[in-house]
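Task: complex structure prediction.
Instruction: return structure tokens for all chains below.
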Amino acid sequence: MDKIVGLITANFSINELNIIAGDRTIASLPYGSRYRIIDFPLSNMVNSGIMTVGIITPYKYRSIIDHVGAGSEWSLDRKEEGLFILPGSVYGVNNSCERFMIRDFARNKIFFERSPAPYVIVAATNTVCNMDYSKLYEAHKESGADITMAYTTAHQDDKMVNCIHEDNGKVTNVTVGVKEGDKAFIDCFIINTSLLMDIVEWYAAVNFKDLFQIIEYDSGINVQTYKFDGYVRNIFNIETYFKSCMDPLNFSVHNELFTTDTPILTKEHDSIPSKYGDSCDVRNSLIPAGCKVSGTVEDSVLFRNVVIEPGAVVKNSIIMQNCVIKSGAVIENAIIDMKNTIQSGIVIKGTTDNIFIKEKNN
Amino acid sequence: MKKKKCIAMLLAGGQGSRLGALTKSIAKPAVSFGGKYRIIDFSLSNCANSSIDTVGVLTQYRPFILNSYISSGKAWNLNKRDGGIFVLPPYATEAGGEWYKGTADSIYQNLEFLNLYDSEYILILSGDHLYHMNYQYMLSEHIKNEAELTVSVIPVEWKEAPRFGIITADEDGRITKFSEKPKNPDSNLASMGIYIFNKKVLVDALIEDSKDENSDHDFGKNIIPKLLGENRRLFCYKFNGFWRDVGTIPEYYETSMSFLEPDPPFSLESKDFQVMSNSNVYPPQYIGRSAVLSQSYVANACRVLGDVEHSILSTGSYVGEGAKVINSILLPGARVEEGAVVNRSILGENSVVSKGVVLGDEDSEKDITVIGNDYVFKA
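Output:
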């Protein structure tokens, strides 16, 4: 395999998720009881043998830096190669939908120039999947394309997911919104480093644009696609976030995402095993270490250090870290964000179409 | 090399043969404990929590898992630039090589290491005990008493005393007598196998001991009695917390099970003594639709589809549909398959209890059933 540089564009944020993202971006949203979404692209890179990884940080970068640190959990604290924290464009990205703004590449030109790698794999942080990027590289090598975009076949209509349009085996343009059966871009692609550097120069005047906005005007760039067959979910709003969080309750999704061959890695904590009390009734739920469960938990996902007191009921909900659900409280179809205490007698009920959100308690 | 005030030497070479099947393939300090820990985590975490940042770990018996587990020491914040963790196995020289002949000999063979750091004090620890302790308090006592050796002691029940090395001390804590496993003890203060030596005293004693052909080269049997005989300043440091040498299967079982009590005598949750461990990143545990759980500890990556009552499920263990696990301990990766019943048992790492097998005896008078690591129990 040729050398490949990885780039994670972690500066993407979107209005629809502000209520839970708050001062975090999508990259640092909690996922799967103990992970954050950035763990997926970052672990995928390392598992695919990419040991030079740049992370383009958002304006509000505290939670991301806190989480990835020096990259030691991903073995990226290295003498050579390793993790590079890169600045992102402060201006113009907030709540715009661009994941791959040319300006972000331009600002970090030196990062690409210093590496001898002929290819860059770029992944956004709104995608949950366990993917071997070396397959994307192989497809790219074989077709001789300038850019190869990873896609999946859309299972349902989605107005936020980008749709790939092709003509004569080449991608012509990318539009927002997919219909069932379309080629849905999963926000991950490989590009020849020299071309990326050229694009940065050629399009300096319109560097606020997304990389995929310009391929429509530039028919000289040979863009191909690569189909990823595994589980993948793009997160753009509360509904897709909630669904995606619940997906690992399904055994096959769980197995695919958290396979031991290519583990999703994350910041480690010294949490003790979870303790289950006398009166607990737990069914079809994901629970990490550090919890104390004495109440009822069904079809739900808990995060670290959550306490479910005897007689508390949690159904079809996500309870984030350091929450306490007191006896007698009832929670259904809800996301309870970090550090909330739900007092006894409180009943919180959303519906499956309209998830109730209790915001983070700072 | 930056000079240290106190460094620790952790004895981790013992087999722990009384743990039977559990130590058949790994050293006792590496035996899994409390769902996600290994026994050595407790001593290493104590070092970290006591700001002791240089630790030599003496290994000998089946060291592979232990070595790979200790790794860089990062899990216990011991990956220091000046200091850190050092695994010290027996080695060969131009005169040949030999195994560590005893606890004292293992330190003697590593005098070079002691000289490298040239600390004023040497803390000797065992890697197979469970307790939370801040060694700095013991060190302050040692300095205050102007002692040459301080032995940490714990009061035990009188009837238990003949099992231990028993210390007799005067009012000021100065040790007057040391009796190894006495039949008629005159004190109930048991040595915990934790010593602080002035470096010079230790080095001189070890060199002399090495020349004695009749010596067992053991701290308890030889070094302490010898120093006592020379009328050196030996003091005891009384420890009043929880301390266990989980040397036997019943001790291992009872100590593990005590975690499930509402207010356990030894807690993993202590904020002052966080127990650190070198665990890989594992996904959350999944509790299935048909599972029934009560009074149990469950670690990450477990998959529980059956009944689990008053048990400890360690990292990555599995309880199949219709299976029952009662009053048992599943070590990492152990599998209880569909419909099997496990009662009062300890299942070794990656062992399997196949479909439909009934294992263990609920009669609390009977022995605990133990299955070794990787063993597959078929119907």
